[in-house]
């Protein structure tokens, strides 16, 4: 494509380092610069190529990019390549034509010829100082980018420290308060039996035996969850997935907890596909199921119903523990799986808990690449739903 002299002069005036030059300089330069026709998709230069030329787009569109990211698209009358016009510099980005394009190419050799012809200094007095300023600006941008990155990293570390502090506070809170209560009941009941058992009726003795049994079970359950959680936090729980019969696993948990359900006259059942299998860590999923079913029993009143069910969704198995118990407020649902939030409350018959079991469940499910969610309506019941890969 042939460009008229006035068009070339107009394009050359877009180069800021020529802004102070006379008309005769532009006229002469327009006669010696080269016109380049670049087909769509063709490379103009690549990262690391030697410099020595600047380009002004007469027609078309040019993309400035690295290997996998387009920085900018430039169209008619825009210039590019100034940062490496001095031939000692190399290209810091690549350029290619997005569509068929016509470029005006002005080289360092062209500028030297103009300097010689008109006895002027463009490279030493204008171009090099200008490029030095641009380089300093690039360094400044890089420093600001690094500063921003450091700030983001510091903020991330701050949040992680807050989380770790909350974890530590929760841990000591459980040890100081929740773990003490079962033992206080054990000591109180056993002391009374030691000192006054001869004065008690069979029924009173039975009641004290129940207190001791329930306190011991609560303490053991809490210790079990504490140890599992502590091992999870320190990375000492090994993830050992294998093919597991989920029908058998769920029914074992249901059978184990049927006695607790019957004690509250609760109907506990499982509706699981007999052929349902998954590649999971059996101990982790067993812990998840035991915690969820135990919680359902705790917060379901006498005569209630609890059902464990499953369904296959695409590449995931969804397991639901549903009850018609007291339900959970939306505010408390959002806090259930946060270590720094205290949402634990007593069950329908004053059963105690710490909320640690649910946090453990969520971490175990996420270790399998699954998710846990809660659907609940106050006074109507809750559904705890988790997914695992098929």
Secondary structure layout:
Elements (H helix, E strand, L loop, with lengths): L4 H8 L10 H10 L1 E5 L4 E3 L7 E7 L1 E5 L4 E6 L3 E2 L13 E4 L3 E7 H11 L4 H56 L1 H17 L5 H32 L8 E4 H18 L3 E5 L5 E4 L1 H17 L6 E9 L2 E8 L6 H4 L22 H12 L4 E6 L3 E9 L1
Parallel strand pairs: 10-12
Antiparallel strand pairs: 1-8, 2-7, 3-6, 3-8, 4-5, 4-7, 9-11, 12-13, 13-15, 14-15
Question: How would you characterize the overall build of this protein?
Answer:
- There is one protein chain.
- With 390 residues, this protein is an alpha+beta fold.
- Helices cover 47% and strands 22% of the residues.
- A 5-stranded mixed beta sheet has the order 10-12-13-15-14. It has a 4-stranded antiparallel beta sheet with strand order 1-8-3-6.
- The two termini are 63 Å apart.
- 24% of the residues are buried.
Give the overall form. Answer: elongated
How many β-strand runs? 15
Give helix % range: 40-55%
User: Which oligomeric state applies?
Assistant: single chain
pLDDT below 50 for ≥5 consecutive residues: which ranges?
Answer: none
Q: Please write the string of helix (H) and strand (E) elements.
A: HHEEEEEEEEHHHHEHEEHEEHHEE
Helix/sheet category: alpha+beta
Largest sheet: 5 strands, mixed
Give the distance, in angstroms, between the N- and C-terminal Cα atoms: 63 Å
Q: Total number of helical segments? A: 10
Rg result = 37 Å
Tell me what portion of residues adopts beta-strand conformation: 15-25%
In which order are the strands of the major sheet placed?
10-12-13-15-14
Average pLDDT confidence is 86
């Amino acid at each position: 494509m042939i460009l008229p002299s006035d068009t070339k002069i107009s394009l050359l005036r877009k180069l800021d380092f020529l802004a102070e030059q006379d008309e005769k300089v532009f006229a002469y330069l327009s006669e010696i610069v080269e016109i380049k026709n670049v087909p769509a998709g063709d490379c103009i230069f690549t990262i690391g190529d030697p410099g020595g030329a600047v380009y002004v787009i007469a027609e078309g569109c040019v993309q400035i990019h690295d290997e996998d990211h387009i920085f900018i698209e430039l169209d008619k009358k825009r210039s590019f390549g100034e940062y490496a016009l001095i031939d000692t510099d190399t290209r810091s980005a690549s350029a290619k034509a997005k569509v068929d394009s016509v470029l005006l190419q002005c080289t360092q050799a062209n500028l030297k010829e103009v300097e010689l012809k008109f006895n002027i200094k463009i490279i030493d007095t204008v171009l090099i100082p200008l490029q030095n300023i641009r380089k300093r600006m690039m360094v400044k941008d890089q420093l600001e980018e690094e500063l921003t990155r450091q700030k983001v990293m510091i903020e991330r570390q701050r949040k992680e420290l807050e989380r770790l502090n909350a974890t530590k506070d929760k841990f000591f809170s459980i040890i100081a308060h929740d773990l003490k209560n079962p033992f206080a009941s054990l000591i109180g009941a056993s002391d009374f039996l030691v000192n006054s058992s001869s004065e008690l009726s069979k029924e009173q003795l039975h009641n004290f035996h129940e207190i001791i049994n329930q306190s011991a079970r609560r303490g053991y359950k809490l210790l079990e969850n504490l140890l599992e959680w502590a091992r999870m936090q320190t990375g000492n729980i090994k993830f050992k997935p294998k093919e597991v019969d989920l029908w058998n696993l769920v029914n074992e948990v249901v059978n184990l907890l049927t006695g607790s359900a019957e004690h509250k006259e609760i109907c506990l059942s499982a509706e699981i596909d007999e052929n349902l299998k998954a590649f999971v860590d059996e101990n982790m999923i067993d812990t998840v199921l035991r915690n969820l079913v135990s919680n359902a029993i705790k917060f379901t009143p006498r005569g209630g119903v609890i059902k464990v069910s499953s369904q296959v969704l695409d590449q995931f198995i969804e397991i639901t523990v549903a009850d018609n118990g007291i339900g959970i407020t939306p505010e408390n649902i959002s806090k259930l799986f946060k270590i720094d939030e205290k949402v634990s409350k007593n069950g329908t018959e004053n059963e105690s808990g710490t909320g640690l079991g649910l946090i453990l469940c969520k971490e175990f499910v996420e270790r399998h690449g699954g998710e846990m969610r809660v659907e609940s309506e106050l006074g109507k019941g809750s559904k705890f739903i988790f997914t695992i890969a098929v």
